Amino acid sequence: MFSNKDRFKESFLKRLESMCGKGFEESTKRDQYHTLGNMVREYISSKWIETNELYRSENKKQVYYLSIEFLLGRLLGQNLLNLGIKEIVEEGLSELNITLSEIEDCESDPALGNGGLGRLAACFLDSLATLNLPGHGYGIRYKHGLFDQKIVDGYQVELPEQWLRHGNVWEVRKPDEAVEVSFWGRVETSCDNNVLSFKQVGDQKVLAVPYDMPVVGFHVNTVNTLRLWNAEPSSFGPNHDILSYKRETEAITDFLYPDDTHDEGKILRLKQQYFLVSSSIQSILASYKKENSNVRELHHSVAIHINDTHPALAIPELMRILMDVEGLTWDEAWEITSHTVSYTNHTILSEALEKWPIYLFKPLLPRIYMIIEEINERFCAELWDRYPGEWQRIEHMAIIAHGLVKMAHLSIVGSCSINGVAKIHSDILKNREMKPFYELYPWKFNNKTNGITHRRWLLKANPELTAIIKDVIGDEWIKQPEKLIDLKRHIYHPALKESFAAVKRKRKEILAKKIAEKNGIIVDIDSIFDVQVKRLHAYKRQLLNVLHILYLYNRIKEDANYTITPRTFIFGAKASPTYYYAKKVIKLIHSLADKVNNDPRVSKVIKVVFMENYRVSLAEDIFPAADVSEQISTASKEASGTGNMKFMMNGALTVGTLDGANIEIMEEVGRDNIFTFGLTASEVLKYEENGRYRSMEYYHHDLRIRQVVDQLTNGFFSEDEGEFESIKDSLLVQNDQYFVLRDFASYIEVQEKVGVAYQNTDKWLEQALINISHSGFFSSDRTIQQYADDIWEIGPVALKM
Ligand code: 26Q
């Protein structure tokens, strides 16, 4: 089918007829997409079956990655690339006068995640399969992924996302492997021969039906599985009020929660979490028991990883099944569970730490609550032994306290490993946020600096740059990304610099064309493309970027002799629908864009562009076109960041604070090849402790600051003068929690340096190439290898090609 272009063309045309009932001439792009997608899925299926058979027969340890989010992005192009058949398909299609990219554009962009955490899970799946590691994802098949963003008059409007509208060629429904998940009811305790047993009665059952998606490794035979659960009414459901039962059931997997920081405490969210966890643990145990007779050995064959605390109920759920179903004692079950589960923390923002009120939790999950109570009691007793009389410390560390269940504490106590996602983040966890737990269990804590898959973020997104690198250093780096460092010997070669400059230019032209189409703004290809794309959050400080642009506007207006390297400021960001401040900042970016882009003199040198509906497929157009990567979070607040790595790999220079993985990027490229500014993490933490920061002083003492802050409310933006008052208040009345004004001068200074540096084209190109050369460290292959070696203790299982 894919052995050469002629065979491909023949099969494609035949399949199109049989699938769509039309000839090629009458077929639509979507018909063609479905046809190709089906052919590829079929081509994958034999490898998929073989992989599963191999895993069964070898019976080696497997890892299951539980995540409430998998931000996959489009799969057709990535699967073709990983299977090594992209070129044949492209050649075949071109003889039919179609391009692969128009077909790819028919695919919906599965957005089953909010941002960093969900995209990380997707990169990890790609690396697991490519490294031939037996690792699978478990998630939720949301009917509606993250909302589509429309901008109306500068305001964000959310529309329901509809990725399943035209079906999903990649999934296989497995009704035979459906399991039941129980909610509500009560626990009946009975005692036989001095052994207590527990039964849930009066509960409501929901059917969890798995939809499996293949995860194709790059140029290997391994095809792993992403299993997404769909909630459906069970035949053991109630026999009254069936309609509301059906509605309630289906609501569980109806939509993805669009908030990635605020712990909303909604019962539906808790239902989603338990639904994911219970169905996944049942499925993991069922497949374990097919090959193994003794559940007491589970932790030697199975590792379960929880992506943040959202799947933390895996801990009590595994306890429940081991005790209530398998008949193990508490101690036996605890030994197994606490050696099976491992946990990654992705944030230190306190508002993001999950805490569930008992009054919500206990009625919904009565048996699980009982088990957590018991875990807590035993844990507190242990603490009491170790720290006699230190009741304050114990209260602070308890899993249940003040009417709340603390999911991070449960995760730490029930896991064998706890990791942060960048060095500084892991250090902050150990020395501050989770200090008492680190003192208790120092061996559990470790760091795994995040990574990204270069197969999507370089090979797929930037084939032009990929081709240049191959020309210069061959292709070993594709399998071993750390070998990108070989490029470094060549960075002074004029030919390399020229070809890199040509590629960057080409990708800027492509992006400029999209901007012209979508925004109606003509941007200057020779200007610096300065990009900030990420979720909108106060701590990520899009506002700092905005205020700097406003400052530049003022300079240009006031000083006829002011010169500046031309820049195009590009933003992409979704705000949580209920996050008032974030939505105001989106509006502010639009108001600023209107001012800047419509001013004849200012718009000659700077432009502001907001790209609507930022998502994986758009990101693949943006990173390759960027010159400057904005990573300007308040130091200590961004656990890692992963966009920073995608920019670096595509040859953008970072303007960043010493936060998250920016620090490790600096260690890789050297201080001269990154633009850092602002407070350090320890300075920020010190201010937070001593309370000595006064934003008002910066407002009064720096005229540049006073001018831009005043412009928020003095009619400059010619709208209702109250429009941006809340933003001004956040800076002055609320004392600027994220130190925007404190870092403002430093940011202006570093941005001036960027402008000057860009003028020296030759040197800039060298610096960009240095960034690319050092980006291999940030491949998720390295990250996953570290998880596999240090945490999961799994090794490769592979068929020969
Ligand atoms: C929790 C409870 C209720 C509703 C929603 C949530 C929720 C959902 C998603 C909380 C957090 C998230 C996502 C967090 C996230 O994306 N964190 C980012 O993770 C990246 C990968 O490790 C890091 O690079 C980023 O620094 C971090 O912000």
TrEMBL record:
Any one GO biological process: glycogen catabolic process
Gene Ontology cellular component terms for the protein in this record: cytoplasm
Signal sequence, start to end: none
Annotated function: Allosteric enzyme that catalyzes the rate-limiting step in glycogen catabolism, the phosphorolytic cleavage of glycogen to produce glucose-1-phosphate, and plays a central role in maintaining cellular and organismal glucose homeostasis. Phosphorylase is an important allosteric enzyme in carbohydrate metabolism. Enzymes from different sources differ in their regulatory mechanisms and in their natural substrates. However, all known phosphorylases share catalytic and structural properties.
Name this protein carries in UniProt: Alpha-1,4 glucan phosphorylase
SUPFAM superfamilies: UDP-Glycosyltransferase/glycogen phosphorylase
Superkingdom of the organism of origin: Bacteria
Residues bearing PTM N6-(pyridoxal phosphate)lysine: K646
Cofactor(s), by name: pyridoxal 5'-phosphate
Sequence similarity: Belongs to the glycogen phosphorylase family.
Pfam family, one: Phosphorylase
Enzyme class: transferase
NCBIfam families, A to Z: P_ylase
EC number, UniProt record: 2.4.1.1
Keyword annotations: Carbohydrate metabolism, Glycosyltransferase, Pyridoxal phosphate, Transferase
Catalytic activity: [(1->4)-alpha-D-glucosyl](n) + phosphate = [(1->4)-alpha-D-glucosyl](n-1) + alpha-D-glucose 1-phosphate
GO terms assigned for molecular function: glycogen phosphorylase activity; pyridoxal phosphate binding
Keyword Glycosyltransferase in record: yes
